[in-house]
Design goal:
Elements lengths: L3 E4 L3 E5 L13 E5 L1 H11 L4 E8 L2 H12 L3 E7 L6 E6 L6 E6 L15 H6 L2 E5 L1 H4 L2 H16 L3 E5 L9 H11 L5 E5 H6 L7 H12 L3 E5 L5 E5 L2 E5 L12 H14 L4 H15 L11 H10 L7
Parallel strand pairs: 1-4, 1-8, 2-6, 4-5, 8-9, 9-10, 10-11
Antiparallel strand pairs: 2-3, 6-7, 11-12, 12-13
Helix pairs in contact: 1-9, 9-10, 10-11
Amino acid sequence: MSELVSFGETMLRFSPGKDERLEDAEEFEVHVGGAESNVAIAAQRLGTPATWMSKVPENPLGRQVVGKLRQYGIETDVSWCHRGRQGTYYMEQAGEPRGTNVIYDRQDAAITTAEARELNLDLIRDATVFFTSGITPALSPTLAETTMNLLKAAKEGGTTTAFDFNYRAKLWSPQEATETLTQFFPGIDVLVIAARDAQDVLGLEGDPRQIAHNLGSQYDFETVIVTRGSEGAIGWHDNVVHEQDVYETDTVSPIGTGDAFTGTFIARRLEGDDVPTALDYASAAAALKRTIPGDVALLTAEEVESVVKHGSKAISR
């Protein structure tokens, strides 16, 4: 039985070489990536048995996603289907002023039709933590309803629910996101949210410490984590606010940094760490992920431990 179960879409990511333009590329690197599977993998790398749930097309692309995730060490429990497609995205990376350009190609993906009755709800009820993100309900009205039903199943089983707000402007408007996601809040124990999303989407005022406290008090969350990018994170728990700085890092790829942070935080809490300690490990994992190409945090518990103990220069000997 997995301690952590996550639910969401995992896509295939096609990237040309660094600085290359998509329109001129002749070869692409292929990676798998999705917030929920990224979180599951990060937690598993820290020693937490994890399962990713989804609905996947029964075709070579869908099988590649599932096969890759299994290679990374997590269990998969999917509803295979013969309608719908495998979502993909394309990412062009370069220095400023071009920066990173992402093109999503996920319309009519198989997961957009996933319903709770197609999934193994007992896995969620038996898990210690159930995780999903705000990306999932943004993909279709069906998935918004499914997300609500999965959170309810978790509550029925006494499973702790963790949710990353994870607003994506390319998927829906701030108003749409607020109307939908705040309906989930009563069923969420641990909320992770970027300070910019709390301000720009939810319309909350104040600094991140005030935002964390206000969210925790208003919605009766058990824990609220407000991420601040290069300024670190704020953790609110038991009416106490904790502050966590970032570890210095050389960025190879920022994709998946937040997922590495969240997966590690969950794993360390499951190990019994208090919130400040779990935040410290999560920050170390996020720094390590930025040195790793692709979406997935292929790190080790020993590496994370070394950064926590000795700082950013710990493993560059």
